[in-house]
């Protein structure tokens, strides 16, 4: 992502219609303004499949020089060298076509010198490039100091003309006009921030509609050049979005198909009763819910898509966790989860060990002394970093077979998720040894309701596909079943349940993936809150190991359940993540603290039980 994109995202206030419309825009709708001023003329825009490029030309001594002003003329920078020769080379490469996918390219040539002299010079040069003039997917459009319309009939049919603001054209002349170009500042003084004031927007929209009514395309020059403007102009139907930042606009447009999501059916939220929502009441059970990759924007995106309601946002005791690892400003899930599971800052990729490689007991190990039972649930692989940190001890998160073997030394009673292969498809007899320790192993999520033994593993990879691919209510049902199974233990339980694929949606820079996983996680949150209110002795904590994707919300519509976003990275970020708490001792989680404090707070609360 370019620095330009990152800077532009700081000041977005998008028009909602534009957000939806951008999903249909591609780089075929992009216009490389003053293309010759880019570091690599023509090819920067061409390789991004821009639909239009612009070159200003000066006629001098039988040659056309490309420059913005006459004083900038360079003998090495001619129209032929920068544009006509590259066009011809691409036509040869693709057997007479300009792109390999059948798209078209418009070359907008802006005359800066006398119209007749410049036109004659252009026509002489084009005689040397007959493949260009014959290609149906190349449009040569003359702008700037163009010949008067009455003279257009004197020029070959492959020469087209840019329509002018006050131009009056006959029917025949209109046939030579593929688009109209206008100075943006003639219609509005909008600076690209916020929204265009209503009267100016109406004036612009009326102009755009009138051009479209003629069956022509439209572009503006002199418009602000940032993300908010691109969204606004595309939302109003402008055919070519001009830019001096072709790579930035290309990156933005390429991301649009995965940028928006509209929820069809919002889920109902639990009506919180805030039973014992204090720091005084006894805590018998702890449910730690980790939204992998979940930051504030993922939460608000879910809130928007669910039409202004989330179970999570009913919680009133909120803090923030600082997530850096021992060796990096930006943590990964292994170090982030290890901090919460063991209270130790560690290096990225380390599981259940500190930064020197020394093993540390996790919460399930430490609460054995209280007679508590433990369970781990993930909407992903149960040997992946976040759940692994609560039972595994390895110097590398990818050692998933070794992590699975660590369960032999762990007191965890229940594991639910994917990753069966790490327990069964191996050279040792791990599955048999686990069965000897009393574990029942099931390979089908459909068996969930029939799991009645004291200790069990339910590992079904087909059940932990993304929500968009049919995972269904795996996470909430698994949590409800596990609570039901453990609630009769008089000494209480600890459950860690992970919304694993919020992270995957962030890595994929896919808003629908991200939001649907957030909504699924919120259903599990609702189930935990409901039990906490019924039980009165259960502390529910909801947090994240880190944020993924650098998601920015460009806009949305809460009433319609529509959200539109843009990612700044396909990796994790360093921003603090929220910590929500509900039930007894939930007040203890207010404030700003290191992620290791989540472990410390849980252990302190449990140690003080009477």
Automatic annotation (TrEMBL):
Metal-binding listed as a keyword: yes
GO MF term (any one): phosphoric diester hydrolase activity
Positions that bind Zn(2+): 292, 503, 507, 545-546
Keywords assigned: Hydrolase, Magnesium, Metal-binding, Phosphoprotein, Signal, Zinc
Chain residues that bind Mg(2+): 292, 384, 386, 498
GO terms classed as biological process: lipid metabolic process
Signal peptide: 1-20
Active site: 333
SMART domains per record: alkPPc
Cofactor note: Binds 2 Zn(2+) ions. Binds 1 Mg(2+) ion.
Cofactor(s) needed by this chain: Zn(2+); Mg(2+)
Family that this chain belongs to: Belongs to the alkaline phosphatase family.
Protein name: Alkaline phosphatase
Species, as recorded: Chitinophaga japonensis (Flexibacter japonensis)
Lineage: Bacteria, Pseudomonadati, Bacteroidota, Chitinophagia, Chitinophagales
